[in-house]
UniProtKB/TrEMBL annotation:
One of its GO terms (molecular function) is mechanosensitive monoatomic ion channel activity. It is found in: Cell membrane. PROSITE patterns: MSCL. This is Large-conductance mechanosensitive channel. Keywords: Cell inner membrane, Cell membrane, Ion channel, Ion transport, Membrane, Transmembrane, Transmembrane helix, Transport. It comes from Duncaniella freteri. The lineage of its organism: Bacteria, Pseudomonadati, Bacteroidota, Bacteroidia, Bacteroidales. It is a multi-pass membrane protein. It holds the Pfam family MscL. The keyword Zinc-finger does not apply. Homopentamer. The keyword Cell membrane applies. GO terms for cellular component: plasma membrane.
């Protein structure tokens, strides 16, 4: 029971919940960026580079072993898929750039709030206002 209570206190802390929300949003953001890279950026890069699809690029370390009669793969080929790695690096760079821009914007907002001049103090009342206030207070006392 003590362990359960301690876990509940841990899980209900604000920073843990904030972190969980950040992880969920980050995962969703990662999917959006992956789609952006896979479906928009890399096809454009392929057109610019003459139809290259980076995900197809790989180094074959060991060829597949195929049965000569049935053409069935006995042992699949072993490859280093460097094209997929390039695409993942592009994903990372875009995510990192987007996070950089977001943090830069947040920091600018913080600086503007910190640099905002404090409101000017209320001006001192004039002699006439002080006198009128005293008269008002005296009239209230007489009632």
């Amino acid at each position: 029971m003590a362990l359960l209570k301690e876990f509940k206190e841990f899980a209900m802390r604000g920073n843990v919940i904030d972190m969980a929300v950040g992880v969920v949003i980050g995962a969703a953001f990662g999917k959006i960026i992956s789609s952006l890279v896979d479906d928009i950026i890399m096809p454009l890069v392929g057109v610019v580079t003459g139809g290259i699809n980076f995900t197809d690029y790989k180094f074959v370390i060991q060829q597949a072993v195929i049965d000569g009669q049935t053409q069935e793969i006995i042992k699949p080929e072993v490859t280093m898929n460097w094209g997929s790695w390039v695409q993942t690096v592009v994903d990372f760079l875009i995510v990192a750039f987007c996070i950089f821009i977001a943090i830069k914007g947040i920091n600018q907002l913080k600086r503007k709030q910190e640099e905002a001049p404090a409101p000017a103090p209320a001006p001192e009342p004039t002699k006439e206002e002080v006198l009128l206030t005293e008269i008002r207070d005296l009239l209230k006392e007489k009632k």
